[in-house]
Amino acid sequence: MDRGVTERTAEAAAWEPLSFGGVPLQARLAAALPELTSAVLARLVARVPVYGTLPTEQLGSETRRVIEQGIRTFLAILRSGELPGEERLQVLRQSAAKRAEEGVPVEAVIRAYHVGAQECLARMLSHAGPGDMAAVQETALLVLRFVEQMTATVVEGYVAVRHATAGEEQLVRQGVLTALLDGGDVRAGARDRGFELPPCYLVLALGIGLHPDESADGVSPVIATKRKLRRLRVELERHTDGAVLSSLGPDGGIALVPHRVGPGEVGPGDWQRLSGVVSHMSRVAGVEIRAGATAAAPEGVRDAARLAQDIRRVATASGRGPGLHLLSEVLLEYQLMQPGPARDALADLMRPLEGRPELLGTLRVFLQSGLSRQLTAERLRIHPNTVDYRLRRAAEATGLDATSGSDVVRVRAALSAHDARASCPAGTV
Asked: Pfam family of this protein, just one (predicted)?
């Protein structure tokens, strides 16, 4: 006779309760219910660390009651041969939902049911004799099917709550981010949302490059973009403390990283660590990232975000590579980005080189290479003599010799002003 756990029809053979040594298993477990419940509770505390941190009152009341309900559910299966119906499953979902609300990890909740099943199985098998092999096999199968259903039900109840909670948390974060970027009474807005603001935010303006998958044949660019942004958010959250607030699109956006001290106390070590985080994000996501960064108290985030965006744009326009960039690195270029007659006059010094990108490019790389002809040649993959020739032609055209100490500052300023005007023709940073 097939004693597998199925939904039996009226025509199916009647269920014969399993027994060891002639005694039905449900009778053995029912008689030992209080003792068995205590044993499962003790094993749970010993095997699943998070349960050992629960208050004694909760362990002795609610947790014990849930364990007993689980055992009674299994007793019903032993009597009928049928898995629990919707009414019993709903009780399990509600219990899992409570654990989700309490912040108990889902793996701990699932392990709790496995621990209970193992204890019950061990109790039953202790009564099995040589002639009970067929019943032992059916009992093991019964337990496995019960655990399978319990796992699916618990995950369903747990995930439903976590999704709802995550959605609410995301709405709160986005609301706080919007308030910070808009300015005004940001602390009151955060307080109304139940959100605690840190002493300071490290404000990142991110420029995100294109991932190869976003333009690959046969790959959905929408999915590739979402995957890229998910990886960036996950890595940023993983390597920073506190609630990161971010608004990222395919090309970039703003991220606010909470910091434990005020903006005046942010030091080189803090920026170095954040630079490492940005580099890690770039590697994991497989994209180039240029980030302008500054620090501000919550009340100053709006202006800090604009400054960080300006720093990123200046770094990009002046040929800086991927990575984290601070105002201190681009002070000259930033100042020359500001519109005015001085900037335009400096930019005009490079006008003779317009239409000669090889001369402009060589001049720019020469300055970025510390005035080293050899390094410039290596970076441009040309002969050093070609570097000399181009620098000489640029000097003849502009009257400024980049190899002369007296002209280097003016060349650097003129080239920065030229790049600034080219990238911001409307006269704004």
From this structure: RsbRD_N
